[in-house]
Amino acid sequence: MTGRSVAGQVFLLQVAIVLLLVVAAAGALVLQVRHDSTTEARNRSLAVAETFANAPGTREALTAPDPTAVLQPRAEAARVRSKVDFVVVMNTDGVRYTHPRPDRIGKKFVGTLGPALAGRPFTEEITGTIGPLVQAVVPVQADDGTVVGLVSAGITTENVGGVGDRQMPLLLTAAGAALVVALAGTALVSRRLLRQTHGLGPFEMTRMYEHHDAVLHAVREGVLIVGGEGRLLLANDEAHRLLDLPEDAEGRHVLELGLDADTAALLSSGRVATDEVHLVGDRLLAINQRPTDLEGGPAGSVATLRDSTELRALSGRAEVAREHLKLLYDAGVGIGTTLDVTRTAQELAEVAVPRFADFATVDLAEAVLEGEEPDAGTSLRRTAFSGIRKDAPLYPVGERIGFIASTPQAHSLGTGEAVVAPDLRQAHGWLAQDQERTARIVEYGIHSLITVPLRAGHLVLGVANFWRSVKADPFDEEELALAEELVARAAVSIDNARRYTREHTMAVTLQRSLLPRTLPAQNALDIGFRYLPAQAGVGGDWFDVLPLSGARVALVVGDVVGHGLHAAATMGRLRTAVHNFSALDLPPDELLGLLDELVGRIDQDEADDESSAAVTGATCLYAVYDPISRQCTVARAGHPPPAVIRPDGGVEFPEVPAGPPLGLGGLPFETAELTLEEGSRLVLYTDGLVENRERDIDVGLELLRTALTGAGRSPEETCRAVLDELLPSKPGDDIALIVAGTRALDPERVAEWEVRPDPAAVGEVRASVTRQLTEWGLEDMEFTTELILSELVTNAIRYGNGPIRVRMLFDLSLICEVFDGSSTSPHLRYAATTDEGGRGLFLVAQLTERWGTRYTPDGKVIWAEQPLP
């Protein structure tokens, strides 16, 4: 105790001395730095002031009309070069001509001017506007000694010196070194004192020994101390128990204690050992041994003994548990990577083999494979198989299996509980399923089975079977729990895949029902088309070919944003709207305008329904081709532009104003007029063909141009070439493609006459019609055609404006058209029996297949179609 007190006093004394020295050195340094700074400031300011006062031109500038203009830049340059804080030139009254701050020029100088006015340089310390500083004032004298001005230079004391900053780290380093030396000296003194007194008295030593002895015998690890001659000096209670030592073991040689040869040899040798495992009786002991004379201690060794029997058993169980957790983790990651029922079932089988079972099979109800809820029953179809070998005599994949009531599978399906059959040779209910096959399975070496139902809520989707053959131990209850957990996770993924399959099937069915199944009969275009739904889900792409009046044909492609049932249903609504609007014979830009308003109304109706997606962003392209004039009128709403393949094989993308996507509203749509040579091919498509995650639309359009350039002549060949070049392996969006080869109506099948606005001209029209029909070989249609045109021309003369023109087209039907300059549309009405008129259009409607009105920039056209005989 005294030694430690002395050591403490020595330590405190040395620390006090060192601290005192550090404080004294710091004070001396501060005083020295302050003195050096002031001296340096005086010398520098005086030198700068004298140099500037005696500089050429200074005296002359003081007598100049504007001294400041001459001296201010010189003073500032001198201040910067000399690194002072100011250089001020003033007159003998102390009025400043220069100053670093221009706003102080013209004001009185702060300081003593008397000595300088007397012709003597003068320095002083003051506190000025920029802080404590040293300034010098020097006179500027004329040749006769007269003082004509004064120059002052000053510098703040904080900007001079730096000696203290350089010496302070050295001082602190020296102080730190002194402290280290002091601590080292104190440690040496304390160690010497403690070595001599051991720091404790007899009472403390006795108490310490008792504590050490209590700890030694209380630890759950055996401790042996062996002397240099191999005699046992000490063994605690745990060592006695583990080695079954006799009571008088201490003091005897370790070779005489009845230990096994290996253990006795290790303890007597004194060599270093680390976790050496020795079998002592029925225990596995891990022995660690170290010599005691490594650092000058007494000869001998210390050995510790640890019973690792239970630890090994616990470690084995922990390893099994870790493997089970790893299996469940891998199952969570590896099962359900796709929304395909069959693939998900296969993933379950592959995860289980070989880490849990040697073979795994999954049997699902057929309704599940089709996306429907399973019916109650035991008839399943083998969906997945995985095994360490491929020749196992289990039911093959794809086979339909009807499990009898006594089998574990039937029990699982009926009760929803997992079943373990530890010995299949004794599982009579399972053996009865198919005696020939089950006998071959047992003979093959498969001896244990776990059957777990695939449950998703109240539904039992099927069963998963785990078979063991290589490992001799049968499945136990712990492994049954693992199988249930594994299958429970997989069942969720299989049910998700089933639901997706059902929704996808419904969407595909809806979409196919909404798309055109066959193309309408028309003679203006040779049509080839392709429609490819996305693998990720049904989208909203659509296309249509719509015959119009006057042998014209409308082509339309569109794309609704999103996927699934909503997109397919919205596509159907838009397609129906296009059908209805096209029946009005509207120009493409007007039709897109009406479609844009419709999309806006759809979005407004569904704005409050959180489950509904907006339609805004849908795109559409509408084109009308006239085989008589070979004019194609195109308008698009945010849709990719069409492509045109000329008869010579050249490909171009005509400039068609893009227009905003449907639903944005507020902006008009514009049309482009294309003149297509006969034999040209017009290509319309959706963005899924030219744009995906791997490439942008510009790259896709160039690829499309290349594909179209090398395509064959027919539309079908063109479709095939385009898809071979651009179709991605896994389309992420629907693809709609139309290739329309243009035809021109033979001029010989077009007849046209100008009609005078005179009722007598009706007879001339009938005569011309008769001649033309005879020329076409349609004599059987003369009467009805004359009657139709007579009514239409009479109405045009009576109610319309000139000019009036009649045109007949001999196409798939006989088309009669009457042009006039009025925009008033006729209306079909049913005349009463007493009315003298009003039956003309009624007769036209009865005699024709269809009739209607379309408007032109100059008026309207009344048209009627008759089927050919």
From TrEMBL:
One of the protein's GO biological processes: phosphorelay signal transduction system
PAS domain sequence ranges: 210-275
A GO-annotated cellular component: plasma membrane
Boundaries of every PPM-type phosphatase domain copy: 525-742
Entry keyword annotation includes Lipid metabolism: no
Keywords: ATP-binding, Cell membrane, Hydrolase, Kinase, Membrane, Nucleotide-binding, Phosphoprotein, Transferase, Transmembrane, Transmembrane helix, Two-component regulatory system
GO molecular function per UniProt: ATP binding; kinase activity; phosphatase activity
Protein name as it appears in the record: GAF domain-containing protein
Species of origin: Streptomyces apricus
